[in-house]
Design a protein that fits this description.
Radius of gyration: 35 Å
Strand content: under 5%
Number of helices: 8
Oligomer: single chain
Structural class: mainly alpha
Mean pLDDT: 75
Order of helices and strands: HHHHHHHHEE
Shape: globular
Strand order of the largest sheet: 1-2
Largest sheet: 2 strands, antiparallel
Distance between the termini: 106 Å
Low-confidence stretches: 155-168
Protein backbone atom coordinates (compact mmCIF):
# COMPACT_ATOMS: atom_id res chain seq x y z
CA UNK A 1 0.00 0.00 0.00
CA UNK A 2 1.04 3.56 -0.71
CA UNK A 3 0.24 5.74 2.35
CA UNK A 4 1.10 8.97 0.51
CA UNK A 5 -1.64 8.75 -2.13
CA UNK A 6 -3.75 11.90 -1.93
CA UNK A 7 -1.45 13.61 0.58
CA UNK A 8 1.21 14.86 -1.82
CA UNK A 9 0.89 16.24 -5.33
CA UNK A 10 -0.02 19.48 -7.13
CA UNK A 11 -3.41 19.70 -5.41
CA UNK A 12 -1.91 19.58 -1.90
CA UNK A 13 0.02 22.02 0.24
CA UNK A 14 3.22 20.01 -0.30
CA UNK A 15 3.23 20.10 -4.10
CA UNK A 16 4.49 17.48 -6.50
CA UNK A 17 8.02 17.64 -5.08
CA UNK A 18 7.74 17.89 -1.27
CA UNK A 19 10.77 19.40 0.43
CA UNK A 20 11.18 16.38 2.71
CA UNK A 21 11.09 13.88 -0.18
CA UNK A 22 13.37 15.37 -2.82
CA UNK A 23 16.71 14.02 -1.64
CA UNK A 24 15.28 10.58 -0.94
CA UNK A 25 13.55 10.20 -4.31
CA UNK A 26 16.48 11.61 -6.28
CA UNK A 27 18.91 9.28 -4.52
CA UNK A 28 16.79 6.20 -5.14
CA UNK A 29 16.18 7.18 -8.77
CA UNK A 30 19.93 7.32 -9.40
CA UNK A 31 20.61 3.80 -8.15
CA UNK A 32 21.76 1.20 -10.66
CA UNK A 33 18.47 -0.47 -11.52
CA UNK A 34 19.89 -2.52 -14.38
CA UNK A 35 22.21 -4.80 -12.36
CA UNK A 36 25.18 -4.32 -14.68
CA UNK A 37 28.49 -5.73 -13.40
CA UNK A 38 31.30 -3.25 -12.79
CA UNK A 39 33.29 -2.66 -15.97
CA UNK A 40 30.53 -3.69 -18.32
CA UNK A 41 29.70 -1.31 -21.14
CA UNK A 42 26.48 0.55 -21.65
CA UNK A 43 24.74 3.19 -19.61
CA UNK A 44 22.50 2.73 -16.60
CA UNK A 45 19.80 5.37 -16.98
CA UNK A 46 18.23 6.55 -13.71
CA UNK A 47 14.53 6.32 -13.08
CA UNK A 48 12.40 9.38 -13.63
CA UNK A 49 11.91 11.44 -10.45
CA UNK A 50 8.73 12.91 -11.89
CA UNK A 51 7.28 9.47 -12.66
CA UNK A 52 8.07 8.28 -9.15
CA UNK A 53 6.29 11.28 -7.63
CA UNK A 54 3.26 10.78 -9.91
CA UNK A 55 3.02 7.19 -8.67
CA UNK A 56 3.11 8.36 -5.05
CA UNK A 57 0.36 10.87 -5.84
CA UNK A 58 -2.08 8.63 -7.69
CA UNK A 59 -1.66 4.95 -6.87
CA UNK A 60 -3.01 3.69 -3.56
CA UNK A 61 -1.55 0.27 -4.33
CA UNK A 62 1.70 0.12 -6.28
CA UNK A 63 1.54 -2.77 -8.75
CA UNK A 64 3.29 -3.50 -12.04
CA UNK A 65 0.02 -3.15 -13.96
CA UNK A 66 -0.83 0.13 -12.25
CA UNK A 67 2.61 1.58 -12.98
CA UNK A 68 2.32 0.55 -16.63
CA UNK A 69 -1.03 2.30 -16.90
CA UNK A 70 0.09 5.52 -15.21
CA UNK A 71 3.48 6.14 -16.82
CA UNK A 72 3.12 3.99 -19.95
CA UNK A 73 6.16 1.77 -19.66
CA UNK A 74 6.91 -1.89 -20.27
CA UNK A 75 6.52 -4.54 -17.57
CA UNK A 76 10.24 -4.92 -16.85
CA UNK A 77 10.70 -1.18 -16.33
CA UNK A 78 7.46 -0.97 -14.34
CA UNK A 79 8.84 -3.59 -11.93
CA UNK A 80 11.85 -1.35 -11.30
CA UNK A 81 9.51 1.50 -10.34
CA UNK A 82 7.58 -0.79 -7.99
CA UNK A 83 10.82 -1.74 -6.24
CA UNK A 84 11.91 1.90 -6.06
CA UNK A 85 8.62 2.97 -4.43
CA UNK A 86 8.82 0.11 -1.91
CA UNK A 87 12.38 1.13 -1.08
CA UNK A 88 11.46 4.80 -0.66
CA UNK A 89 8.37 4.48 1.55
CA UNK A 90 10.13 3.71 4.90
CA UNK A 91 12.51 6.65 4.43
CA UNK A 92 9.70 9.00 3.43
CA UNK A 93 7.66 8.00 6.47
CA UNK A 94 10.58 8.89 8.72
CA UNK A 95 11.16 12.23 6.96
CA UNK A 96 7.56 13.50 7.15
CA UNK A 97 6.96 16.83 8.89
CA UNK A 98 4.79 16.58 11.98
CA UNK A 99 1.88 18.29 10.28
CA UNK A 100 1.80 15.66 7.55
CA UNK A 101 2.06 12.90 10.15
CA UNK A 102 -1.07 14.36 11.75
CA UNK A 103 -2.89 14.63 8.42
CA UNK A 104 -2.10 11.05 7.38
CA UNK A 105 -3.14 9.76 10.81
CA UNK A 106 -1.69 6.28 10.36
CA UNK A 107 -2.23 3.71 13.14
CA UNK A 108 1.47 3.65 14.00
CA UNK A 109 1.42 7.43 14.46
CA UNK A 110 -1.39 7.54 17.03
CA UNK A 111 0.84 8.27 20.02
CA UNK A 112 2.91 10.88 18.16
CA UNK A 113 -0.22 12.58 16.85
CA UNK A 114 -1.82 12.81 20.28
CA UNK A 115 1.34 14.40 21.63
CA UNK A 116 1.38 16.84 18.71
CA UNK A 117 -2.29 17.78 19.23
CA UNK A 118 -1.62 18.60 22.87
CA UNK A 119 1.34 20.73 21.85
CA UNK A 120 -0.81 22.63 19.35
CA UNK A 121 -3.50 23.25 21.97
CA UNK A 122 -0.93 24.67 24.37
CA UNK A 123 0.90 26.90 21.90
CA UNK A 124 -1.84 27.94 19.49
CA UNK A 125 -5.28 27.23 20.98
CA UNK A 126 -6.95 29.62 18.52
CA UNK A 127 -5.56 27.70 15.52
CA UNK A 128 -6.79 24.25 16.52
CA UNK A 129 -10.10 23.21 15.01
CA UNK A 130 -11.92 20.00 14.34
CA UNK A 131 -12.50 20.57 10.64
CA UNK A 132 -11.61 17.69 8.39
CA UNK A 133 -9.07 18.44 5.62
CA UNK A 134 -10.54 18.51 2.09
CA UNK A 135 -10.59 15.21 0.26
CA UNK A 136 -8.57 14.53 -2.87
CA UNK A 137 -11.79 14.64 -4.92
CA UNK A 138 -12.70 18.09 -3.53
CA UNK A 139 -9.20 19.39 -4.30
CA UNK A 140 -9.39 17.97 -7.82
CA UNK A 141 -12.71 19.76 -8.44
CA UNK A 142 -11.23 22.98 -7.08
CA UNK A 143 -8.22 22.60 -9.36
CA UNK A 144 -10.50 22.10 -12.36
CA UNK A 145 -12.53 25.17 -11.45
CA UNK A 146 -9.53 27.45 -10.88
CA UNK A 147 -7.31 26.18 -13.68
CA UNK A 148 -4.20 24.03 -13.84
CA UNK A 149 -1.87 26.86 -12.85
CA UNK A 150 -3.71 27.67 -9.62
CA UNK A 151 -1.71 25.15 -7.60
CA UNK A 152 1.60 25.49 -9.48
CA UNK A 153 4.43 26.73 -7.29
CA UNK A 154 6.48 28.12 -10.15
CA UNK A 155 7.24 31.82 -9.60
CA UNK A 156 6.33 32.67 -13.19
CA UNK A 157 2.82 31.27 -12.95
CA UNK A 158 0.05 33.80 -12.30
CA UNK A 159 2.48 36.63 -12.96
CA UNK A 160 -0.38 38.59 -14.49
CA UNK A 161 -2.11 38.75 -11.11
CA UNK A 162 0.87 40.45 -9.51
CA UNK A 163 1.85 42.75 -12.39
CA UNK A 164 2.00 46.34 -11.29
CA UNK A 165 -0.61 48.54 -12.80
CA UNK A 166 0.73 51.07 -15.23
CA UNK A 167 -0.21 54.69 -14.78
CA UNK A 168 -3.20 55.78 -16.85
CA UNK A 169 -2.73 59.50 -16.23
CA UNK A 170 -2.47 61.56 -19.45
CA UNK A 171 0.90 62.95 -20.31
CA UNK A 172 1.50 66.56 -19.42
CA UNK A 173 1.77 68.87 -22.35
CA UNK A 174 4.92 70.86 -22.76
CA UNK A 175 4.67 74.39 -21.34
CA UNK A 176 6.80 75.75 -24.15
CA UNK A 177 4.77 77.42 -26.85
CA UNK A 178 5.76 77.14 -30.45
CA UNK A 179 7.03 80.45 -31.68
CA UNK A 180 6.92 80.93 -35.43
CA UNK A 181 10.19 81.97 -37.08
CA UNK A 182 10.66 85.07 -39.24
CA UNK A 183 8.65 85.20 -42.43
CA UNK A 184 10.71 84.93 -45.57
CA UNK A 185 9.21 86.47 -48.67
CA UNK A 186 10.11 84.68 -51.80
CA UNK A 187 10.16 86.72 -54.94
CA UNK A 188 11.96 87.49 -58.17
CA UNK A 189 15.20 89.39 -58.38
CA UNK A 190 14.96 92.48 -60.59
CA UNK A 191 17.41 92.55 -63.46
CA UNK A 192 20.55 94.51 -62.48
CA UNK A 193 19.33 94.99 -58.94
CA UNK A 194 19.89 93.37 -55.58
CA UNK A 195 16.29 94.00 -54.55
CA UNK A 196 13.80 91.27 -54.59
CA UNK A 197 10.33 92.07 -55.83
CA UNK A 198 7.39 90.55 -54.07
CA UNK A 199 5.65 87.83 -55.97
CA UNK A 200 2.33 88.92 -57.31
Amino acid sequence: MNPFAGFIGPTTAYGRYPFFAQDIIEGIARLDWHDRPIGKGGSSKPLSVRSLMVLFEQLEEITTEGVQEIIGTKARQAQRYVKAVELAIPYLLQARPRRLVLEMDLPQDEAANEEYRQLLRQRCPELVDELEPPSAADLARLRQALGDDAFDDSPVINAAYYKEETSTRPRRKSSKRHRPGPTINKGRRKPGSNEVSEAS
